[in-house]
Amino acid sequence: MRTATLQKNDLDRVIDLLSQADYRVIAPQNQPRLDGPDSIDVAVFKEIQSGDSHNIGEGLSTTGIKPFLFPKDEPLFAYENRGKKVVLTEVSLDFPKTVILGVRPCDVASVSSLDAVFSDKNAGFNDELFTKRLEKTTFVSYSCTEPDVSCFCTSVGLAPDSDKGSDLHMTELPDGTLHVEVKTKAGEKIAAVIDALLSGDGDAVARQQAGVAAAEKITRLRDSAPILPWLQDLGNFGDEMWQRLGEKCLGCGACTFECPTCHCFDIVDENSGNKGYRVKFWDSCQFDHFTLHASGHNTRNSQFERYRNRFNCKFKIYEDVFGEKGCVGCGRCIRGCPVNLDITEYMAEVAHKAAIPNAMSADPDFE
Amino acid sequence: MPNIYQPNLMTIKKVINETPDTKTFHLVFQDEELQENFEFETGQFGEYSCFGAGESTFCIASSPTRKGHIECCFRKTGKVTNALFELSEGDTIGFRGPFGNTFPIEEWEGKNVIFVGGGIALPPLRSVIWNLLDLRDKYKDISIVYGARSVADLVYKQEIAEWEARDDVNMVKTVDPGGETDDWDGYVGFVPHILENDFKPDPENTVVVVCGPPIMIKFTFEALERLGFKQDQLITTLENRMKCGLGKCGRCNIGSTYVCIDGPVFKAAEIDLLPPEY
Lengths: 367, 278
Hints:
Strand content of chain B: 25-35%
Structural class of chain A: alpha/beta
Radius of gyration of chain A: 22 Å
Distance between the termini of chain B: 36 Å
Order of helices and strands of chain A: EHEEEEEHHHEEEHHHHHEEHHH
Largest sheet of chain B: 7 strands, mixed
Shape of chain B: globular
CATH class of the largest domain in chain B: Alpha Beta
Helix content of chain A: 25-40%
Low-confidence stretches of chain B: none
Oligomer: heterodimer
């Protein structure tokens, strides 16, 4: 498919042209973290209008793009109790044509993971609130050139310049120009809209070198190959590692809310008088009530068990059940953890244990 | 088409007070076409809702052989079940389902079948009990071992009497020590104990279907294995906490097994392959 060159300072024009073509444009923008003059700006993805400042290609966003496909909370339908009768009103599944601009490779790679959960690929049940949004969304990704210390995409089979899941992929070259690669039909439409800004065929060699150079900056390197077989050995479910490393987890759920692939949700009624909405909203497997039975029995009763479930979800359950990656190495769970619990420490321990069987035997007291 | 989370509306046709905190609802769909065409198999469950309070997961407690309505049976425990408990005949509830797998009743044809249940765990068994009794010729001896904390906590008292009166059902009932009344004519003792020491079933050509809290399932399986039962003769239905019932909300999993999709019915051999987290 087509490759071309785009000038980085034409990104503002890209936003203008896409907006004029009736796309809702989502892009990373700086916003103050707190109220007041001392606040530090953080990058978040949000809707952008022509003329707004943005930081596409600058730094890493604190939150990913998950809310634009799977919102933090959303009504499933409205209900109204009328005496003995109930009237239900459907919510609209008509979502705006959207382009997400400047999404990092790890985040765009996570979309197929969420799709494997919410689409009818999973047991035939199609959550159209997700899939109809996805149908309307085009992803313009942007290679990382400056991964940070928490990034570990190369340890999970991705790279700072991966284009998995992308419709149109951009890589910033050392000369400040962007190498553009059209990956899908949806990407072709974007290329057509911004055609006036594209020139030549790009520089495939420089793009390749930029990817290699970025990957070399990643310092957090783990071997994830032994993890799945190690987790599949049921004997390791009782390994002493889980309790030892998981002991400091507070169960705050920050990792799950920032994670691009975490998909757990709750369903509750938001009631007002005789009517309201049934609402689906983000939940976390790290919360103690998450698996609590009505009887009082809790299948994951202690925090380390809940963390063990999360690690298993990332490296085994996603693979077993959904056939997709559960972890894209974005590093947000490391950056966001208030007690520095580090998923890559577990990855390293597993690789170590897998390499030296019985090096640390299972805790005999574990049940 | 409504999205997959929007329930169908049902009318409560009848309310039965089973115990001071447990009720049975007889339910019919308000949509006539759906009422006509609705099908399920024994062992499946649904998501039942009281609008304004939320949704809860219960089995379908009636047998698919009995058309006309479906039944659910629930104990008031949390927000939703307390709200449902307040509803009366003619009121509307929401239902999503049927979900999950089913009891493999064809595999049991020509065999003795023993049902073992505790407390509020009788409703899932009751569906399959009536299913088998309505196809009585296909099965050999049918036994029911049921216990609760106290006489007052026994659900389906009327049906227990009905099963006791039948000569083609062996009904064994028990209550926990201290839960008996003066006129109690059943056993006194925990279900696994009564099963192992008093009922003592013969494993020959027999399957056992166990439903109850996880601790009861564990002790009952152990008791049955001491009696000579093999894992492939033992079946249970798990009742993990659920929200969606669709394999998406991430709550009911035991390792890579989703109870809502892969279950709720499991053979003991399948349970043995799961991490000890149920």
